[in-house]
Fold these 3 entries.
Entry 1:
Amino acid sequence: MLEQLRLAGRIAGEARREGAALIVAGARVRDVCEAVEDAISRRGGGLAFPVQSSRNAIAAHYCPSPEDETRYADGDLAKLDVGVHVDGWVVDTAVTVNVGARAASQPLIDAARAALDAAIAEAGPGRPVRRLSAVIDATIRGRGFHSVRNLCGHGVGRWVVHCPPPIPNAPDDSVDRLQAGMTVAIEPFATDGVGRVIERGTPEVFRAHGVTGIGGGDPEVLAAIGALNGLPFARRQLAAFERTRVEDTLRALLAARKLAAYPPLVDADGRRIAQAEHTVYVGNDGVEVLTT
């Protein structure tokens, strides 16, 4: 398991760096996401979720549709969120790119990254999750920003992107502790707003809770979704099928209450957000960062 996680982590880190270098003013967001997905495939990894790139006030879950023509602009804070699995073992990592290298944008990016480093330094077997949350929040506040309080890190597992324990970006009443053998994604979000996101926009990320016994869905599309073993997917991953077949199948899954949809998560006040994320393995003596 650990060797598979390490391989997934190496693939994710390399693909994240390759993708971040492509994020420049004028580049199409969809092209960058697809290039990262190709980089993962070329290295022998599988997609734990479709690559996403959220900009500015959008914190997460912006996934380009097959027709999306959105391009990065100078001054953007562009998040790149990458998930990889090897034989189902999942890692999750993200970076924020300062498009155009604007000096005014860098402190927010640095705050998220510093909070991630501080949380990793605090992590270890037996450590209270609440302590990691406190370190994240204190680091971001110490740099003059706010953590996004209703977003959190999370455990990852085999064929599972989100599982316990949650790792909030500000301390709450959690009594969870990290345990040896856990794999967790730590992901601080820093903002110059109040630190709360809401769902807004059309979802392009979905997750099926099983595809058997669905009436009205296209059998081939259902088979393609079922082959993902419950991992999240996007319309873009089903582009080989006619769009009407895809939409009919999504409607059938929704009607059967076997489909979760994830709209973009946007700062409630329209303020900008930066993210940094690594997946770590909790060993007996400390943690190993898998996604460097």
Entry 2:
Amino acid sequence: MPEPSYRLLVVDDEPLALNLAKRVFETESDIALHSATSAVRALEMAMVHDIDLVITDQRMPEMTGLQFLARVREVRPRALRVLLTAFPDTSVALKAINEGLLYRFILKPWEPEDMRVTVRRALETKRLSDEHDRLVNQLKTSYDDLIQSEHMAALGRLSAGIGYELKTAVEPLHASIGELGVQVARLVDTARAASRAIQQDFAPQELASLKDAVVRATPELSGSAERSMEAVRSGCAHLDALARGIQGYTTAGEPEPFDINQAVLSAMQLLSHRLRQAVRLERDLQAIPLVRCRGPEITQVVLNLLSNAADAVQKVSQPTIQVRTRKDGSRVRLEVADNGAGFDPVVAQQLFRPFSVGRGPGEDRGFGLSICKSIVESHGGNIEAGAEGGKGTRFIVTLPAIAAS
């Protein structure tokens, strides 16, 4: 026998009323009926069974129907609730409906067919509500997957540049470590010669050996060692910045206080292989309040805007990108501007629609900007674009700042 699709709980302190309900629904194969003459017993049933619809009398000895339904809402918040009441109680029932406690009320005495129709409508409402929530959750999951997919796709597009950055940082490290190895070996030889000279009470032969070791180790030792150490420190700092940029972009998390300037720095580090070559980067990062957000997602927005700007200035004689942050009332403002070819102002209205614009075959078809818009708006912010003919493009992102305590 198939499992019933719905569970109905009927509560009334009059056994005759429960018997009538049983006769009405005993032929409904998709409804499992649970009944109780006690509100306390009915609450126990609601805790055990996943109830879809509750029908209760208003006047009961242990508690009123509305008190019982308030308790049910705590246990089964998604269950629809129907109240059986007489005429003197209609004002109370209407107030409960307005406050969201009831789906509807039924006047006593009730007719079996009216009750059957009411229950069917209620269960259909419940089904539609559940389906709506399922689709919303599915859409949210798809949206999260889309964000992550775009996230990793962007990182994939950056992989060549990241490899270049790693190579740039590691090559001087290798060279400097090799040079330091030679210098350390000479110092070790000198120390050993000194040790032998001491043990032999500075015999002439050992003193000559010590002098020879010192002569080999001394020329330009301090300057050479310092240059090697500086190269090592610089390479390590470069690698550390790159690692922090990748970590800041890929590490998922819950919304928390975040400095947008950090998102700009991380994005610039990840794109440094593109921005340092022939592109003039003008940076004006002011002290700004924190925003509550998912840092990696905001970094993704900045990364996308900077990447688009780098693409836009490829064919400009003096390519320039401007990045600016500042406090704007109760919000934080980020601007990314370039002096590329710009676009028709009419296009600005469609710029954030998926697949509505594109630069060329195989390139980003504008989907990244659609993701940017979704991310910014999900954080309570706004993003807009502006262009003035061939004078370039400016993107403005605003996010609500965390109020100072």
Entry 3:
Amino acid sequence: MSVLRLEGVFTSTIGSFPLDDTVDNRRKCIDDLISVGIDFPAYPQLTDMNKQFLDDLLDQDVGLIFENGEYRMSGEDLQEPRSVPGLDILLWTIQYLEKTGMRRTVSIKAPITGPFTLASCIRRGKGIFPFNTAVSNPRLVRRIADIVMMCCREASRYAEMIAIDEPILSVIVGSRSIFGYEEDIIRIFNDLREACGERIVGTHICGRISPKLSRLLLKTNLDFLSHEFYDTPKNIEVYQPEELRKNEKILSVGCISASDVHVETIDEILDLMMRFRDYDNCIIFTPDCGFRKLSAQNLSKEEAYAISIKKLKNMVEAAKRFSYLR
């Protein structure tokens, strides 16, 4: 594990925003995140996090096809892609920041969809989810992990922070692991972390985090663990400060809802933040998840986006007050 290089209170974003993926919207999103004062803004992930990587693999003929609205394997295995998939938006962001003269002052976070979640999007065989997907096969998960390692190596050339997004893990690791490959989870996370070199690397897993999953994550070499705590307050009970300290982990706390249109007040956010005042000398505050779900709340994409920025402004101000009070 690398020596943690962060100390203090920081803010970041998870990824998605409820806007169409256009150049103008990318500019708007990254400019707004910088203006709001986010310490580690994620690149503008304005497309589906799974499609972002899987569509690139489709184009490279690695043994993946899209049929009847589903990703499927055309054979028994996946081939190594000719080029690194899914990072066009990261590269665009870096070029934009260089062109505008902001690159030296902005620390970018790169969300990378993890191998377990990507595997859960690839249909194979019959049955019910997730048993009918590639995530049920450790060999295929490992194959996809090798591809994601390529993404990690490339992203580490540009991004200061990297997040392996694995929402499926809160589904497949509850009171027990439905596929029984706990050691594979630890090993794959450690391999991905190593592929990122000296960058700050963690995982974002939304949903309810089971004690079993938290114990697995603490055993990894990841630097930070990112979860939702606002809409899933039960997660507050999952980690104890001494556990994180012993395992050299930074907690990344989701402190505003990513799906409720209510704009949390600064005081509401600060109340939640203060429950983490004893969590060592470094903590990161984020939304619970990406904001894409806001567009499903009978709002236009522009209205949903405006709400997400208001939430982030209050989060940044609450983090400033938290830093002063802790």
